[in-house]
Amino acid sequence: MKHQPGFGGKQAMTQGQPLLEPVLVGRRRELSSLWNQFEESLTGQLRVALVAGEPGIGKTRLVREVARRAEQMGVLVLYGGASEAEGMPPYLPFLEALGQYIRATAPDALRTQTGAMASVLATILPELSLRMGELPINYRRGSPWYEQLS
Question: How far apart are CA 135 and CA 115, in angstroms?
Answer without folding.
Answer: 11
